[in-house]
Amino acid sequence: MSHIIGHIDGDSFFASVEQSINPSLKSRPVITGAERGIASSMSKEAKVLGVTRGMPVTQIRRLFPEVIVVHSDFFLYTVFSRRMFDIARRYGEEIEEYSIDEFFIRFKKGKLFFERKVKSAVFNIKSDIKKELGITVSVGLASTKVLAKIASNWGKPDGFTFLKDQDRENYLKATPLNKVWGIGERTAEKLEKVGLRNAFDLVSEDFRRIQKDFYKPLQTIWQELNGQEVFPFGNENLSPRKSIRSSRTFIPSANKDFLLKEIVEHIEKATFDLRRMNLRAKCMSVFIKTQTFKYKEKEVKFFQPSNASNIAVVQARIILDGIFLSGVLYRTTGVIFSGLENRESTQQVLFNERHQEISLPFKVIDNLNLRFGRGVVGLCSGLKKSSDYKKEFRKSRFSIPSFGEVD
Ligand SMILES: [Mg+2]
User: Fold this and answer.
1) How far is the CA of 41 from the centre of ligand 1 (A)?
2) Residues 318, 211 within the same domain
3) What mean pLDDT comes out for the span 294-307?
4) Is it the case that residue 72 has pLDDT exceeding 70?
5) With bands split at pLDDT 50, 70 and 90, how would you rate the model's confidence at 137?
6) Same domain for 261 and 362?
7) What is the 13 CA–ligand 1 centroid distance (Å)?
8) How remote is the CA of residue 137 from the centroid of ligand 1, in Å?
C-alpha cells in the first residue's frame, strides 16, 4: 500500500462524554437527548438493555427505569471533539475532521516498517484519548476511506481492525450494502433488485456496467471498495455541508426578549461551529414555532458570507420583529445557516481587512469558551437569559403543562 487511511470513530460519543465528566454515571446505562424527548446517544450499557437511537424518553423510562436520561451539552461535546482531533494531530500530519466524533487520518508510505509504524501511531491515539478524555474510539485501517469506514465499524466498541487488501473479499461479503458509506436504504434496495446483496457482489460487477446503469456516486464507491482512492482527503476538499442548524424547545413563552435570547444562543452555537470548520454562510434563517405548532420562518442573505455572530444577531432581531406576534405562546426557536462555503473560496479580497477585524475577537471568545466552559464570554444580548428563563419557567409551569415534544 502506498498509503493507509484510518477512520476513527468515538464510541457512543455523547453518552461516553457524559460518563467521563460525571463519575457517578460510569458503567451505568445513560442516554442523552432529554431536551428533545428522544434518545440521541446511548452508553454501551444502555444499548445492552435494548435502548435504540430515537426511542422516546417516556418509553425508555417505562421499559428501563434504571436508565439515566441527561440533557445534551453540545458545547461540551465540541470541546471533547476538538481535543480528540488535537491528540490525533500528534501522530499524523493529515487529519480530516468528518463529524463531531469521527475523523480520518492518512499515513503516507515511509521507507521502513510502514505498517508497524502506522499501527503503533493508531494505538497511541487510542490510548491517549482513553487516558486524557476517558472515552474509547474504534479504529479502522484500510487503503480507502470507504473501506476504512467498514473496518472501524467492525469491532465496536474500542475496536481496531486493519482491513488489508488480501482480506477484502471476506470483509465485503459480510457487509450488507446499506452499511456501506454513501449507499442509502433506497439505493441498497435497488441494487438488491438486480441481485446484488452485499459489498462484495457490488465490487464483483463490471465497472462498465456500473458506469452505464448507475449514478456517479456509486461509481466512486465501487472504485473505493476496490481499493482505489478516489475521495479527496482533507477538510478543504470536504463536500461542503449544506447547512448548520441549532434549535431548542422550551416551556412555552410569549416573551419576545426571552425568544431573542434563545435565538442569540443558537447563533453563538452555530457560528462557533462555522468558525471551527472554517466556513462562512451566505444566508441565515430564523424560525419560531407556536405552542399550537404553527411555524414561521424567514431567511436573510448576508451582504457577504459571514460567520460573525454579531452580524447575524442584528439580522435575527429584524426577522424576529417581523414574525413575532404578541400574546402568542412560542415553544421552539431556531436558526439555520445555509449556503456554506469554505473561507478560502470566499471572494473576500475587497473585504479582507474588515473580515480580520471581525474575526479576531471571535477567536479570542472561542478560545476562552473552550478553556473555561460554555458561555463564559458571549454577546450581551444573551446575558440575561438564565434568570429570565427561570422566571419564565416558574410562570409557565402552572399554566401550560404540556412540554417535551420533539421538534
Ligand atoms: Mg461514533
Assistant:
1) 9
2) no
3) 91
4) yes
5) very high
6) yes
7) 5
8) 8
